[in-house]
Design brief:
The protein is about 50% helix and about 15% strand. By secondary structure, it is of the alpha+beta class.
């Protein structure tokens, strides 16, 4: 770092105006980066939700940030473990350093470690996880993102994340299935409020002739006691009536008698 051609060994040695100018510039750049992250990183892919306010930055998210900022990740210590593995040396612990470079200059570093035993003796898996941890650590440290993300999480966090992934991959209910609540209640087991909400939910999914038939069915049976625009039924519509309406809609959609 230099000022007017004079080498400066510490930022606090800069004159006041230069220091404030540099700090304002970096603060503005960091704010822009955070805004970009919020707009471009996807939950459950680039970062994982966890208990509390912070998220866990994942490898795809770290790679997106690195790519967008023009940095190049390198892992200078990786070759040592590759050579040791080829030589048949017993490796028990792995520590990988990640260096983020810009035009050949190192601008940030991170460290990641794994025990081979932790991965049941699979050195390849341990190397990959250590490399991933080093990359994420380098991104968090270089860009000061610890306020938004963290890296380490415990078994409970991992279990919760796995459950979220399972839920995310489950097929969404079909139009007919949405006539029932998550517990797959029969229409007669649903409350009046649940029936009302599910009827309009199904109506929103329908198109074309099927939707026209359902609208005619509602108008014929309830008249002005249903408002499909506001998605409401009149207060005097009883639960038994809604059960008949729900079954009638299912009959229209499936073409089968209920």
């Amino acid at each position: 770092m230099s000022e007017n051609g004079v080498l400066i060994s510490h930022p606090l040695d800069l004159d006041h105006k230069s220091l404030i100018s540099d700090m304002d510039k970096r603060t503005g750049n960091r704010d822009s980066l955070i805004k970009w992250i919020m707009n471009n990183l996807d939950e459950n892919v680039d970062y994982a939700a966890r208990r509390g306010n912070k998220k866990n930055l994942e490898k795809p998210g770290a790679e997106k940030i690195v790519s967008a900022t023009g940095l190049q990740p390198t892992f200078p210590s990786l070759n040592r473990y590759e050579e040791a593995a080829y030589s048949g040396i017993d490796i028990k612990e792995i520590v990988i350093r990640c260096e983020l470079t810009l035009q050949g200059r190192i601008v940030g570093t991170g460290i990641g470690g794994r025990s081979v035993k932790e991965h049941h003796g699979n050195i390849n898996a341990a190397l990959k996880m250590a490399k991933k941890s080093a990359l994420i650590d380098a991104v968090l440290t270089t860009f000061g993102l610890s306020q938004m993300f963290q890296q380490d999480w415990n078994e409970k966090d991992q279990a919760e994340q796995e459950q979220r992934k399972i839920q995310a991959t489950k097929p969404k209910p079909t139009t007919l299935e949405e006539m029932k609540v998550a517990e797959k209640k029969d229409v007669s087991s649903q409350t009046k409020a649940e029936l009302s909400a599910n009827i309009f939910k199904v109506l929103d999914k329908l198109q074309g002739d099927k939707k026209a038939q359902v609208l005619d069915f509602l108008a014929h049976n309830l008249g002005n006691r249903v408002d499909t625009d506001k998605k409401t039924f009149a207060a005097d519509v009883k639960k038994d009536e809604l059960c008949k309406i729900a079954n009638g809609i299912k009959e229209i959609v499936t073409g089968k008698s209920i």
